[in-house]
Design a protein that fits this description.
Structural class: alpha+beta
Mean pLDDT: 81
Shape: globular
Radius of gyration: 19 Å
Low-confidence stretches: 1-29, 150-160
Distance between the termini: 52 Å
Oligomer: single chain
Helix content: 10-25%
Length: 160
């Protein structure tokens, strides 16, 4: 009898974990506030491998950004609206850079972004480490790289 109860507990553990993950996935924001400027801060990173959008990244050489886990809404980040043409436009001391969202920052709050090393370097010296007091916003970028104006927040249904 003891062996049977242990097997049931072990078999049920993965199902319980999957249910908790699925329930926890819905706690993020339901919509991406496109074209809504926010004040915040940026740090940089230089990791290489697969980003949260499921593509190969190299934050040491590519222009990209990782945004707070709080903005991600899909249980599978590869299918998240952030991975479907959303970029971040960052402005600091008269300099502006627009970079695609390719990764998730687990330690960032909602107004903290983690820029790739070259993106950060276009705004401030790498030795600064943290840029406080910048302005950033989510933008939708078209095929030719132009910013697409949107009047409503982006959701999974908006992107199709």
């Amino acid at each position: 009898m003891r062996v049977t109860s242990k097997i049931r507990i072990l078999a049920g553990a993965p199902l319980a974990a999957a249910a908790l993950i699925a329930l926890g996935a819905g706690t993020a924001s339901a919509a991406i506030p496109v074209n809504k400027p926010m004040s915040g801060k940026a740090t940089y990173y230089n990791d290489a491998g697969f980003g949260a959008c499921g593509t190969q990244i190299n934050a040491g050489t590519q222009m990209l950004v990782a945004v707070s886990h709080a903005w991600w809404t899909a249980a599978n980040p590869n299918n998240d609206p952030l991975c479907k043409g959303i970029s971040v436009k960052v402005t600091y001391q008269g300099k502006t850079v627009t970079v695609p969202v390719r990764d998730k920052c687990p330690s960032c709050d909602r107004t903290h972004i983690d820029l790739s090393q070259p993106a950060f370097g276009r705004l401030a010296p790498l030795g600064q480490g943290v840029i406080n007091g910048l302005t950033w916003q989510f933008v939708k970028v078209g095929f030719a790289g132009e910013t697409v104006p949107l009047s409503e927040p982006v959701t999974a249904s908006t992107l199709g």
